[in-house]
């Protein structure tokens, strides 16, 4: 195991019904979004983001992801170790 050098977070996103694919496209245009997947379950989309600092991660989630149209709610999980 290794401690992650750059801050990484997974953001679980609930969307308005039927807007998942459009939201995936919007997420793909955000510089720090490395991956975004449409998933089944409690959440609709999971996105992986990375940044140079924790402050930047916070800004990406609060100002870029949560404010996208059709985002109903988010849950952010910060990575502390990676295999």
Would you spell out the secondary-structure blueprint of this structure?
Elements lengths: L7 E8 L4 H9 L4 E6 L6 E6 L3 H12 L5 E8 L5
Antiparallel strand pairs: 1-3, 1-4, 2-3
Condensed summary:
25% of the residues lie in helices and 34% in strands. By secondary structure, it is an alpha+beta fold.
Describe the structure.
The protein has 83 residues and is an alpha+beta fold. It has one domain: Alpha-Beta Plaits (2-Layer Sandwich), CATH 3.30.70. The chain is built from 2 helices and 4 strands. The mean pLDDT is 94.
Average predicted local confidence, pLDDT:
94
Looking at the overall shape, the CATH architecture is: 2-Layer Sandwich
Low-confidence stretches: none
Q: Which percent bin holds the helix content?
A: 25-40%
Shape: globular
At the fold tier of CATH, the topology name is Alpha-Beta Plaits
Q: What is the H/E string?
A: EHEEHE
